[in-house]
Amino acid sequence: MVFPTTLPKVAAQWLFTFYRAVRKLRRQLYYRNTAAKQSSVSQSQGAAHKGTGIIPDAADRTVVCDMHGALLRSTELFPYFMLVACEGGSLLRALLLLCSFPLVWALGECGGAGVRVMAFVTFAGLRPRDVDLVARAVMPKHYMEQLNALVYDRLWLPARRKVVVTSVPRVMAEWFLKEYLATDAVIGPEMQVVRVGHGRYFTGLLCGPVLEPELKQNFVREALGADGAMANVGVVGSSNPLDHLFVPYCKEIYVVSSESAKSARLPRDKYPKPLIFHDGRLAFLPIPTAMLSFFLFLPLGVILSVIRINIGIVLPYKINFLAGALFGVRFRTSGLRVPPAGSMRRGVLYVCTHRTLVDPIMLTTALQKPVPAVTYSLSRLSEMIAPIKTVRLTRDRARDAETMSRLLQQGDLAVCPEGTTCREPYLLRFSPLFAELADDMEPVALDAQVTTLYGTTASGHKWLDPVVFFANPVPSYRVEFLGPVPREWTRAGGRSGAEVANWVQWRLGSALGFECTGLTRRDKYMMLAGNDGVVAK
C-alpha cells in the first residue's frame, strides 16, 4: 500500500529536478554562444540603465531589440490588440476581446497561444485598409508614450542598423517602427488574408515567425545580413531574458529592468518626430482594468452626455455655468471685458483656436449671448442641436468672403481659421481670409481636456463628436479672451492678410503654450484618413 502512494511523489520530485537541470544547462549553453567580452546579465542591466555612461558607443553597430519590454517600457500586448479591435472594428469587438482576456491570461499574454487568441478576436473579418489606418493614425501616439528613454537614447539612436523583433502582428507595428524610428527590419508574425468577392479580409489566423522558432531564427539571420554575422547589441526585457531566440546572434546583451522602465518615459521634446496628428476615440492606454472601467461607465456616460447637451440647448446662458458644473463640466473663462454701459459693440470677429466642434458654443456661453459661427463641414445632427446659428462655407474664396462680410454687417461672428481640429499642443496654419475682412478682431484661446474619449475624429462618425466629448467623466474647457488685435497688426495698419493671420496664430500659441505650424487641414486628412478632407456633394 505504501508503494502506490509514494510513487507519484517520487515522480514529481524527479521531474522537478530534471526541469532545474535543463534550465541550468540552457543558461550554460547561452553563455558559451555569446562573445567572450560579454558581461553577465546583471552587470549589463546595471550598465544599461543606471545612467552611469558605461555603455560603449553604439555607432556603426547593429542593434536587435525586443519591442515589448525593451524598446517599449511595458511587456503588455493586450492594449495594442484592444486599440485595433476598438478603433478598427467596433465596441462590440472590443467587448469580446475584453471577455477573452481571462483565457489569454491563462494561456500567457506574451505566449504563442495567447497571441493567437487575441489576434483571432481582433482581426477576424477586418479589412486590411481599416487596420492600416489604425496603424498609421492611432498606434503611433500610444507607442510613442511607451518608448523607453534610456534604450532609445543610448542604444537605439547611435546604431547604424536597427532590427526589431515583435510578438504582435507586423501590420500593427511596422509603420510606426519604420516611419518614426527608422527601423531597417521588423520581424514578427503575419496575418492571413482571404479575398471575398471584390474585398480582402483578415481570417484572424497567424502565420510566420511566431509559430515556428526555427523560422523566427531564419528571419533573424536574414535581417543580420551576411552568413554567420552577429549583431553587436541585443536588448531584451527582464522577463525571461534567455528565452529570446535572437540572443545567440548578439555579441552583447542588455536586459531592461522593470524598475528602470517605469521611470524611463521619453519626453515629448525628444520624440523622433513631432506627434501633431492622431485619430481614434480612446484617450487612454486600454489595459484590461481600464477597459473594464470604461465599459462599466459607458451607459452612465451616454446619459450624462444627453443631459449636458440639453443644458446648453434649453437653459438660459446665466444658468448654464451652474447646471453644467453640477453635472461635471468644468468651464473656466478669463480676460473678458464688459463693454461700457450704453455702447453697442457689433461686428467683432472672434478668432478662435479649434479643439472640438463645440468651440463656438463655449464661446457663446462665455459671452452670455449667441454669436453665429462659420464652419466648413458640420453634420446635420450637429446643426439641428446647436443652440447658435451655424453657416456653412463652400471653400470658394470669393463666395466665403461675401458670406462672412454679410454676417459681420449683422453683428459679431466666430471663426476658426485652422479649418479643422487639432488635439495636440500645436496650431495649424491660419487661413488669411478672416484678416482681409475685418479690422475689429479679438483672438480667443480655447482649449479642451478629456480623460477617456476624444470628441473629434477624422475617419469616424463626425455626428457623434459632441456626444462623445460630453460623455467624458469630467470634460473641461478653457476660454481666454486676449483683447483686440492692435491696429498696427491689421489691414488698416498696412499689414497684409498673411501677416495678420500669422501674428494672430503666434498670439494664440503664446497664450496656450502651443507650437505654431504651417500644416493645413489637407495635411491632417491625408495622414489620418487617406483623403483631402473634402466631402463630395
What do you see in this structure?
With 537 residues, this protein is of the alpha/beta class. It folds into two domains: 43-270, Rossmann fold (3-Layer(aba) Sandwich); 298-528, no CATH class. Helix content is 43%, strand content 15%. It contains 20 helices and 16 strands. It has helices spanning 2-33, 41-49, 78-89, 91-99, 101-107, 112-123, 128-137, 139-145, 149-156, 170-179, 213-224, 258-263, 288-314, 317-326, 359-367, 380-385, 397-410, 465-470, 497-512, 521-528, and strands at 62-66, 161-165, 185-187, 190-196, 199-207, 231-237, 250-256, 330-334, 349-352, 373-375, 390-392, 413-415, 426-427, 441-449, 476-481, 515-516. The strands form five sheets. It has a five-stranded parallel sheet, sandwiched between helices. The chain has a five-stranded mixed sheet with strand order 8-15-14-9-12, sandwiched between helices. Helix 3 runs parallel beside helix 6 and helix 7 (128-137) packs parallel to helix 10. The longest helix has 32 residues, at 2-33. The model is unreliable at 24-56 (pLDDT under 50).
Topology (elements, then pairings):
Blueprint: H1 2-33, H2 41-49, E1 62-66, H3 78-89, H4 91-99, H5 101-107, H6 112-123, H7 128-137, H8 139-145, H9 149-156, E2 161-165, H10 170-179, E3 185-187, E4 190-196, E5 199-207, H11 213-224, E6 231-237, E7 250-256, H12 258-263, H13 288-314, H14 317-326, E8 330-334, E9 349-352, H15 359-367, E10 373-375, H16 380-385, E11 390-392, H17 397-410, E12 413-415, E13 426-427, E14 441-449, H18 465-470, E15 476-481, H19 497-512, E16 515-516, H20 521-528
Parallel strand pairs: 1-2, 1-6, 2-3, 6-7, 8-15, 9-12, 9-14, 10-11, 13-16
Antiparallel strand pairs: 4-5, 14-15
